[in-house]
Specification:
Layout lengths: L15 E2 L1 E6 L5 E6 L2 E5 L4 E6 L4 H9 L1 E6 L5 H7 L9 H5 L3 E2 L8 E2 L4 E12 L4 E12 L18 E4 L2 E4 L9 H14 L1
Bound molecules: flavin mononucleotide (FMN).
């Protein structure tokens, strides 16, 4: 184990999901912005959080509508995601500029990103002003997933989505598959079974 350096508190947590937050303004305009300050916060009911600075056009649209879409970013979408993370919808029609497709959602008025492998349709339940960011806690009302990622038994294989992640100022592709949920226990019991034979 190496020698540790002690730094003052900071946002050095990663990897984080890389997402595009989609929203629709009161005038009907669609917008999208890149976000990484997000995560799942509850299983039942399914809920997630995303933190957005109040000065973003997205925060204005989410506050007005109480809804947003959260669209996962695949590695081949990273250039567009980076652009959507430095340009504001106040100056650009970001869907048009990026060549991304605005798809209708099933439960919310905000559009979803057609090119995204998986999108979550969200309605805001809690809004907390934390400091620089507003924390939105939202219910996940529906999920739209690329049918190519679902096998004939209905199982979702996210390993094939080629997702990107955000880690301390850098974009990364998700690498090697290291195991499935519970594999450590399964392997032990399999070894035990093998020993018994
Ligand atoms: C990788 C990346 C992650 C980002 N994460 C967030 C975030 O979690 N919250 C936030 O408010 N802004 C975040 N941003 C910045 C916004 O995406 C950016 O300010 C954007 O231009 C806002 O667009 P809008 O004004 O159209 O809403 C991120 C930018 C990048 C490139």
């Amino acid at each position: 184990m190496g020698h540790k350096l002690v730094w003052q508190g900071g946002t050095v947590l990663g990897p984080l999901p890389l997402v595009l937050v989609t929203s629709r303004g009161p005038d009907g305009r669609a917008n999208l912005m890149t976000a990484a300050w997000c995560g799942i916060v509850c299983t039942k009911p399914p809920m997630l959080s995303v933190s957005i600075r109040p000065e973003r056009l997205t925060a204005e649209y989410v506050d007005a509508s109480g809804e947003f879409g959260l669209n996962l970013v695949a590695a081949d979408m990273v250039r567009q995601a980076d652009w959507c993370g430095v340009k504001s919808g106040r100056e650009y029609d970001k869907f048009a500029e990026c060549g991304l497709t605005a798809l209708p959602a099933s439960k919310i008025s905000a559009p979803l990103v057609g090119e995204s492998p998986l999108s979550l349709e969200c309605t805001v339940r809690e809004r907390l002003v934390l400091g620089s960011h507003i924390l939105y806690i939202a219910a996940i009302e529906a999920v739209q997933v690329d049918a190519d990622l679902v096998d004939s038994s209905g199982a979702l294989d996210m390993g094939r989505a080629g997702l990107a992640a955000w880690c301390h100022g850098q974009y990364h592709s998700i690498g090697e598959d290291l195991g499935y949920f519970g594999f450590s226990v399964r392997r032990r019991s399999r070894i035990r079974r093998e020993r018994r034979v």
